[in-house]
Amino acid sequence: xxxxxxxxxxxxxxxxxxxxxxxxxxxxxxxxxxxxxxxxxxxxxxxxxxxxxxxxxxxxxxxxxxxxxxxxxxxxxxxxxxxxxxxxxxxxxxxxxxxxxxxxxxxxxxxxxxxxxxxxxxxxxxxxxxxxxxxxxxxxxxxxxxxxxxxxxxxxxxxxxxxxxxxxxxxxxxxxxxxxxxxxxxxxxxxxxxxxxxxxxxxxxxxxxxxxxxxxxxxxxxxxxxxxxxxxxxxxxxxxxxxxxxxxxxxxxxxxxxxxxxxxxxxxxxxxxxxxxxxxxxxxxxxxxxxxxxxxxxxxxxxxxxxxxxxxxxxxxxxxxxxxxxxxxxxxxxxxxxxxxxxxxxxxxxxxxxxxxxxxxxxxxxxxxxxxxxxxxxxxxxxxxxxxxxxxxxxxxxxxxxxxxxxxxxxxxxxxxxxxxxxxxxxxxxxxxxxxxxxxxxxxxxxxxxxxxxxxxxxxxxxxxxxxxxxxxxxxxxxxxxxxxxxxxxxxxxxxxxxxxxxxxxxxxxxxxxxxxxxxxxxxxxxxxxxxxxxxxxxxxx
Amino acid sequence: xxxxxxxxxxxxxxxxxxxxxxxxxxxxxxxxxxxxxxxxxxxxxxxxxxxxxxxxxxxxxxxxxxxxxxxxxxxxxxxxxxxxxxxxxxxxxxxxxxxxxxxxxxxxxxxxxxxxxxxxxxxxxxxxxxxxxxxxxxxxxxxxxxxxxxxxxxxxxxxxxxxxxxxxxxxxxxxxxxxxxxxxxxxxxxxxxxxxxxxxxxxxxxxxxxxxxxxxxxxxxxxxx
Amino acid sequence: xxxxxxxxxxxxxxxxxxxxxxxxxxxxxxxxxxxxxxxxxxxxxxxxxxxxxxxxxxxxxxxxxxxxxxxxxxxxxxxxxxxxxxxxxxxxxxxxxxxxxxxxx
Lengths: 542, 225, 105
Hints:
The complex is a heterotrimer of chains A (about 550), B (about 220) and C (about 100).
Chain A: H1 23-27, H2 32-60, H3 71-90, H4 93-107, H5 115-137, H6 151-155, H7 160-187, H8 200-232, H9 245-279, H10 286-299, H11 315-345, H12 352-375, H13 377-383, H14 387-417, H15 423-450, H16 464-494
Chain B: H1 2-9, H2 22-57, H3 59-66, H4 71-96, H5 100-130, H6 146-182, H7 192-217, H8 220-223
Helix pairs in contact in B: 2-6, 2-7, 3-6, 4-5, 4-7, 5-6, 6-7
Chain C: H1 8-29, H2 36-56, H3 64-89
């Protein structure tokens, strides 16, 4: 039966949203789907706080002189923008919202392995967030999100201790989430669901969880050492006691480089799902994509020194790190080729999630390739600490991760809420975001190459035109981000009822009602076929 | 033993609803604890890295500083922790066999040994305070560069302090296990918390197995006892 | 796979071995063997840790995935240590004479 005809699609009366009412049923829930929504609320909040700081930054940079804020304030703005966006939006983002919601569904389980630990994760995340908000409100932090010593450990007069304690605490939220995912994927797959029948989103989530487990603890202990130096005067990075400030950078980037793969791997997992569904074709080279996820997670741990090329590290070590940095690009490229091949062989339709997926692929390619520019030791001497680097990582994190996140939110919105979002408005905002994003960040490649340093609140007059373009783009981007906030909330009440499988797609999450019951499946599923077995004659909705 | 089974086992046909059977729950729990211990390896690992770098950069200073540590107390503490691992393993053995009384006894023995360790550590820390070896304004040491020696002690306090914190948490866990065992919560079919508590406890012992030589032993021979 | 029950005899032997190794490492540390002191101390520590992990923690009889988790954590620690050390070692032969700074002649 065609999905377009006006048959009455029934909204399941008993589902995880209606199973219990009242604030206690949300704040004390053990249901992974409700916890995912708690995270959705928190990270949306933090996204707009981080966006607020970005707004003030771009307003200041409209003019060459520092006339909107003082230099010391500007330092706080870019620091807090970075901390909030990295630690409270990008890192938890897709894993905590989409991962928490989908992992049990996709493996055919009733919940994650440790539901109470999952709830504890959210509380830990929130408590860490409170510490950082306290830091923001009690005068801010001005060290850069990278907390380089000795400024952060000795000389900064800003609220550093509260901020590092907050991030330390939030790190445990990541660790527990990753732990939960790894154990669930290993031990709770439905009968017949072998490793190579898993959706690629699960492979990406698994690889991300490896990074959570192996990387985050090093950040935790490093921030603890900074706190110790500030509060107890244990001069671990202080040259006076024989300490090396560069050791901080080694330890910090050991986590923070793999952290960028925490940000992008789940996004790639989402894109795999979107590309498959909206090409109505299985992902080309499934095993290559699956292994590439793990390869990115592993190789990502071998390249951190490329953040330290001009910091005073030995040139020979720099050479090694530069060489290794080229390798980590390879599995990412494999994925891009495979998505492209999937599109080529498929029957493509352009609903909003697909628009975001295609945006991701294009913008990630630009971001990734400019990563190769900065991985080259010689080029990096020129562009490091300029807007070139800023543009590079925003192409990946915003052009990549945020677009994939929005694509995933739209794609699974019917499953989460039982309702369809308004396709027209959604496509419009996707387009606005795409235009706004490129107008904001492409000029920054040029600015960086021309020599404009990052983290400066004033600049020579000749850079103004490009900065004005960038700020104009940012205002468009902001509109694009506010629109989904409005129409998605609207759709929860007024959107058309979605039914169990509106796209339609494959995968266990689509075999249960929208929204799912609390225990996910009325009948525990058994898997008998390979993933992404699309039936080409069924046309999609919309 | 069949008798203890019917008394204790009756409670534990149940398992958490997200699992399909008790065996899946047990395996998930064990894997979860091992994954957590992996994070602890990297957590302590950051401090071990700092220590390695600075020790290699300042071998003579660190040797002199290290000789200020009380070797006898460190040695005794190492034996104390090894005994506590033995009592913990024995506790798990008794849980597996449903011997409630011995389980409680060996859990208590483990806690007591843990407390002995912490007590000796407290004595050592007090000695450091007395001898002005705590990093800060009052730090003084003879026979070597006091600034670089202070680095040794910063790392000493950070590493042994973090370890002691983990011991305290472990002791807390043991007390919870003792309470659960007292209330008959364990049986040969279900004693996962004891297993997992054991894994954590042994891990904290392993950390000390490395801390002892790295902090107390390297450099002993060149300077003397 | 169900739980492995290890005999008290095995535990007792491992315990005794651990005590013996502890005494050995203590006594050897008092004899000057130059760089070998470091090698011996760390090797004995590694052996003791392995005994605790394999026998007390039942790693020897644990599922493959558990053994993979253990191996990975150790390997990652090795990555952290070796690539960080690579920077310091490559700074030149004098780096072990103290990280020198102009402020600290």
